[in-house]
Write a structure and sequence with these properties.
Elements: E1 16-19, E2 22-25, H1 26-38, E3 43-48, E4 54-57, H2 59-65, H3 69-72, H4 83-96, E5 104-109, E6 115-124, E7 129-137, H5 139-159, H6 170-184, E8 191-197, H7 200-207, H8 209-225, E9 232-237, E10 240-245, H9 252-264, E11 268-269, E12 275-276, E13 280-286, H10 293-309, E14 315-317, H11 323-329
Parallel strand pairs: 13-14
Antiparallel strand pairs: 1-2, 3-4, 3-7, 5-6, 6-7, 8-10, 8-13, 9-10, 11-12
């Protein structure tokens, strides 16, 4: 039986309802109500409260359950849900649903993997208690939620991305080093390198900011090319770049030198046909459990300062601190 079936009503016994003096036959009113429920966008089922056997349903319920009406009639409500939800549904009805009118609402999944919000409303009749079940398809909501999450992720990516080079910006670097610090506690130590373009102010002053921007993009591209997917590289600010790499400490200087040579091997063409060779200085340090992210950055920055003091276009890596000194740094 579906909501389109209308019980027989004796016309002579039908009462008259009306507003503003307009009479309405109760049989017709009931038919209109049932038709309204049948075209309702949410699925509606009527079950016996004790046995949970389905007596009536509307078109939306049949569509959601995705079976013919004959298969629904007399079936038990729990059988149309995934096995993992059936016992939970029965338990909640028996233990939590008050026969005097409380309402339960829960997210569950139908047997055909359709996610639904199920609302359960007991309704006491003269000689029995029925259970009104409303099924709301959650797929449009979940699709919208997925879209929103994707847009938020894109927005977060843009917020943490340097507009000129496409690398992480300072915010992105700070987020990345915190993630590296967490992974380092699970026996995945890492190196932090800070690279600075040598004589960048002179490049801007001599050739203009447009060429300076080109220099930044060239260096950014060379850095990114030398790194793996799990590494992170950021333009920290101005002409300064930061690199995070989970590598053995014995390989840090070798990798830094490879990066430095890659930059030097990519000169920029000038308007007069000559070429401008770019060089970078690199300061590096390595993770120690007692060091904070800020302390690691300060040590890498100190190494970068030494690289510049020693003549630029070189790599300096500070040796690990003794444990007592590392504790003081923290």
């Amino acid at each position: 039986m579906t909501f389109s079936r209308i019980p027989d009503v004796d016309a002579e016994k039908a009462g008259m309802l009306g507003t503003a003096g307009v009479p309405i036959n109760t049989h017709r009113a009931l038919q209109c109500l049932r038709n309204l429920i049948d075209i309702w966008p949410d699925g509606v089922l009527v079950c016996d409260f004790e046995s949970l056997r389905i007596d009536e349903w509307n078109s939306a319920a049949r569509h959601l359950i995705d079976v013919q009406g004959a298969a629904i009639e007399g079936s038990r409500l729990p059988q149309w849900f995934l096995s993992s939800d059936r016992r939970a549904l029965q338990r909640r009805i028996l233990q939590e649903l008050d026969k005097d009118g409380d309402t339960l609402r829960h997210n569950m999944t139908l047997h055909n993997d359709t996610p639904v919000e199920i609302t359960l409303v007991p309704m006491r009749d003269t000689d029995a208690i029925s259970l009104i079940v409303v099924l709301r398809d959650r797929r449009p909501y979940l699709d919208h939620l997925h879209t929103v999450k994707r847009q938020l992720a894109k927005a977060e990516e843009l917020i943490s991305q340097d507009a000129l080079t496409g690398l992480l910006n300072r915010l992105g670097f700070e987020q990345a080093i915190e993630e590296f610090m967490v992974e380092a506690q699970s026996d995945k130590p890492f190196a932090l390198m800070i690279a600075d373009i040598d004589h960048f102010k002179d490049i801007n002053d001599t050739y203009g900011h447009q060429l300076g921007d080109e220099a930044l993009k060239v260096v950014a591209a060379r850095l990114a090319e030398q790194l793996r997917d799990d590494d992170a590289v950021a333009r920290y600010g101005g002409e300064e770049f930061c690199i995070l790499m989970a590598v053995p400490d014995t390989q840090v200087v070798e990798i830094a030198e490879r990066v430095r040579h890659a930059v030097a091997a990519t000169p920029i063409g000038l308007g007069d046909g000559s070429r401008l060779t770019l060089t970078i200085s690199i300061g590096a340090t390595y993770y120690q459990p007692a060091l904070s992210a800020d302390a690691m950055f300060e040590r890498a920055d100190e190494a970068l300062y030494e690289a510049k003091e020693y003549g630029r276009n070189r790599t300096v890596m500070l040796q690990p601190l003794p444990m007592s000194a590392a504790d003081e740094e923290e």
